[in-house]
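User: Structure please.
Assistant: Input sequence and predicted structure:
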Amino acid sequence: MPEIVLAIDQGTTSTRCMSFNHSGEPIAAHQLEHQQIFPKPGWVEHDPLEIWENTQIAIRETIEKSGAKPVDIAALGISNQRETTLVWNPKTGEPYHNAIVWQDVRTDEIINELAKDGGQDRFRQRTGLPLATYFSGPKIRWLLENVEGLKAAAQQGKAIFGNIDTWLIWNLTGGIDGGKHITDVTNASRTLLMNLETLDWDEELCRQIDVPIGMLPQIASSAEIYGQTSTSGPLGGIVNVAGDLGDQQAATVGQVCFQPGEAKNTYGTGCFMLLNTGEEIVQSKHGLLTTVCYRFGDEKPVYALEGSIAITGALVQWLRDNLQMIETTPEIEDLAKTVDNNGGIYIVPAFSGLFAPYWRSEARGVIVGLTRYVNRGHIARAVLEATAFQTREVLDAMNADSGVKLTSLKVDGGMVQNDLLMQFQADVLGVPVIRPMVAETTALGAAYAAGYAVGFWQSRTEMRKNWQVEKTWQPDANSNANTQLYSQWKKAVRRTFDWLD
């Protein structure tokens, strides 16, 4: 009888494999970071072969730590950094170029060209998305136009596209020996190429963005058996690959936000808040994205509103790696605690422009309010506060779009271990912030999808019973974070506009 479900959480900075039991408790995990490649300002790349190698190592190590055999594994699920784009040769398995990461802004000219006819919202009605450098379709076009011989290879069937989920599923299910070229509806909904209503590739969109439809993977649900691993693969046996969700949708499932009006916020490299809107497609009027939340098998799809923030945890990494103000990421909390406030400074990390709710690709980061009084502690505190303020902006937009005022916020991801940040977040929002027992809900959501597909979990109710609160932060009624400080933040954000011509 299978005892565990495996989940691969392939993120922007690292790849993790985790195993979970039927109670949704983590049994074992292994994690490896991969290289961040910055060829030019605003360009971000990953090596797909390094990611695949790290994935294999993480799987083997997790299985060994779990003390499991292939027969003990009910299924394998995948969650992935969304929009990160790669094209490879299905005959050789070799990528034609490094993966272009979701943060990358090299498609700015393509976006501006597409926006000349119909503006930024040209495709929003069909895709739920604005025209922005964030999404996969224009990245595919850039590769076709800039990698020598790629356009001809695509016409000959020698070049196929995938986000990282598709790349991993293809390799896990055989690679050049019959690997399945598949994605799920959540990842497909982030390409600017899928129609939200039909849940299929839109031929007109593909033609307008100039992407050959034959390069694209088959769109499946988020929970079904896509294929099986082989005895020669990293699992050492035959296991069903049965779950696939973009990382933020996976976290929403892991937080069991199954009812319309339930929301979660994930604090990672960026910050991503999703609000379940049920079976209704809600078009945003306040700068949010409309996206597929999940679809389990043949059941009706569930949609969501999403607020995407590009730089949150990455700002802490910038403080660590570029400014070398701290040696390890967790040190930022102690450094920020050396002062009582931000000393009057605000950091707006528009490194790749501003995402929700502004969508200003020409914006760039600023530090404002500097005086001789400011020290390292103030800078550390301003870095953390930037995450909380950006989240408030997204929540305001979400309240306006949905007409539902959130009464609490479920949180997950690496930054939620920072108590100072979580308390400030509650103060800025004016609602309780709730951390679950299992904070790594992205991997858990991928496990739930895979386990649901094979009957390891029979219902959403069964999954919901696993969710438990670890800690709640209540807003401080005496704090001025959601009034005076937030007003100053909004003023700082306006200083980032129109930096690039």
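Residues 376-402 form the longest helix (27 residues).
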